[in-house]
Amino acid sequence: MFLRQNRLISKEVQHEKTLNEIEQTFTGYLLEMKDENEQFLKQFEKISQTASIPAQPDDLPSESVMTVKTTRNLAAAAYKKPQKNKPESISDRARHLAHQGYTVEEVARELKKGKTEVELMLKFRQS
Question: Who is most buried in 49, 95, 105, 106, counting CB within 10 A?
């Protein structure tokens, strides 16, 4: 009994050491990420300030300013949510939902139509 208790205590100590090591590792990793993010933001601000200053013919070629603006626009466009084109008619919407894998019951519920009506819409669209 005494040996089991000692083994349990030693396992608890090992477990606590492991937890402390993991916590220190994560803390170090988070601090590195924070430093990298701050450096990135500083570089981004420099680029933004450089792009916002009117370019003089001798200072920067117009191609580099256009590249910075284009890059910024591409980055902004990448973060925008794509807009979905909604089908116009109910039968188009029913076909679209069925194509996405919805069951007839789910399509009917989504469109607030009867199950039989949706089945007929889908059958007429197939032929």
Answer: 95
